[in-house]
Amino acid sequence: DIQMTQSPSSLSASVGDRVTITCRASQSSSSYLNWYQQKPGTAPKLLIYAASSLQSGVPSRFSGSGSGTDFTLTISSLQPEDFATYYCQQSYSTPWTFGQGTKVEIK
Amino acid sequence: QVQLVQSGAEVKKPGSSVKVSCKASGGTFSSYTISWVRQAPGQGLEWMGRIIPILGIANYAQKFQGRVTITADKSTSTAYMELSSLRSEDTAVYYCARDHLSTLDYWGQGTLVTVSS
User: Fold this and answer.
1) What digits encode the pLDDT tens for the residues A41-61?
2) pLDDT tens per residue across span A12-36
3) Which of B72, B69, B39 has the alpha carbon at shortest distance from B55?
4) What SS3 class is residue B63?
5) A64 CB near a chain B CB, below 8 Å?
6) Which of B35, B36, B47, B99 to mutate to test the interface with A (most CBs of A within 10 A)?
7) Is the CB of residue B105 less than 8 Å away from at least one CB of chain A?
8) Up-side HSE of residue B28: CA atoms within 13 Å toward CB?
9) In the beta sheet, which residues pair with residue B36?
10) Residue A24's pLDDT is what?
11) Which of A66, B25, B40, B48 is 20–30 Å from B107 (CA)?
């Protein structure tokens, strides 16, 4: 199984800040890497697919980069509605596996 | 627009089984794959397995092999996930999601399964 490790596990940031979350795979997942946002009590929402493609309807302040084993999710200017938990997920090989999550909190 | 609607919360005894349903609307049900993902309280996301309704073929995460069965009824556009030999550690919210082009792009609302004696 491909293990996914996110860092940090949590972070505190202010509205307007630039936020970066990293995800590392235990072996190459090519560009088969997705990012999800989850707010309390709701299902995850797809933000970025194929490492850098923005899902329809997702604000352009979200961006993704990377390939192979190292990936990054960036929020260019944090908005109040962005406080949530973010997960990376590899879809290179089953079982699909997720990072442990990064909780973005208000500073 | 694809919509996935899951069955309601369940309370089960240890050792019993639970079957959660996921009814799809919009899109063509038989042409895509449905995955099941669970989330224990305060924990992360864990993929359990998936099914391709048009083929009726399912594959499962090794961790759940032998305890989980995922099926689909094309006539009602409904997928099912049955988990047996329940233990307290299976207490979680169970989600179905459309597994399309290597993404989980549409999700059900989640079903809370509580395992308690």
Assistant:
1) 999 999 999 999 999 999 999
2) 999 999 999 999 999 999 999 999 9
3) B72
4) helix
5) no
6) B47
7) yes
8) 3
9) B49, B96
10) 98
11) A66
